[in-house]
């Protein structure tokens, strides 16, 4: 059977033997709403909770809009104009700043911002990259949640009106993306993010896909956003073509709750048992542009791989590890994934990119991970304790041949766009103990 894997800006076709026991978990097709721009305006006019945005603002006020950076496929070119239309005649464009919620990622280039927003909008608005390491651009707000020191972007803090825009999908340790994440970690200081993503929080079993209740990461993220003030929140859910399926607007927490429930139905899928081999991706570009982001695809596979099983992750990685940040350095700092995981878990202080490394080390301690990339060499991957395959199908056949005819394979063609989970209720009768 042929399976198409999302890879870079296209697809990678993998031919698997017909006699293998293969389960393909991919997004169910959800058609995009007709006339996306008109639909977004309708959603803004009828919020999930609270008054519409135009009824919350006054002439002369300043407004900050938080949006995702290039690593997220948010339809900013539609969402930002919809917000501007909603406040037209009340707040002037020159009183608006659009903040790229980079978290600890690098700032986006002018060309990338134009790619995200379009040239006309980029030229008309003030667009600023958040910089978590620039202390002069941050404001101290106090301690929130379970001992989280909070500095936020000063342009955000000083704005009269604060609007988050994003998209909601299951997140590999925060439960779900969108909503409050557009404040912290999106617009937070490095120290704030390091605390939110420390070893204890990330290592908690409740810090995983689709879990919100008692998730220590999401709990503090939600507390920071709610208690430091968000005027209005606006999120979308996307289909496999990155088109809008649903949108939600209104008070932050109520809006995000409604969006999460819709995303759970759309983006999570039950399977009957664990698998010997899981082939995964990171949903193609822009999500698979570096190894750092590809950990999400590995994590989605890890939810359904047998202990000691094999994960094969196809991610183009055109941006390398990437080279900025300390991710590569931390990965190479120990002799094995097991040693790396133990070292991170024992640390009292969190270092940049530690959370991603901690999750990757945990995955690699429990399963063999094989990469298929176009921009990372075997030698570079070895620094991350990873191996590479040039032929995914051949690697699947090799692993299954060692296991025997009972080998089971799962394929996630679009990686974390649909997150699998084991649910005994979907098992066939002869599978039930």
From TrEMBL:
Residues 276-415 form the Lactate racemase C-terminal domain. It comes from the Bacteria. Residues 7-210 form the LarA-like N-terminal domain. PANTHER family: LAR_N DOMAIN-CONTAINING PROTEIN, LARA-LIKE N-TERMINAL DOMAIN-CONTAINING PROTEIN. This is Nickel-dependent lactate racemase. The lineage of its organism: Bacteria, Bacillati, Actinomycetota, Actinomycetes, Pseudonocardiales. The gene is larA.
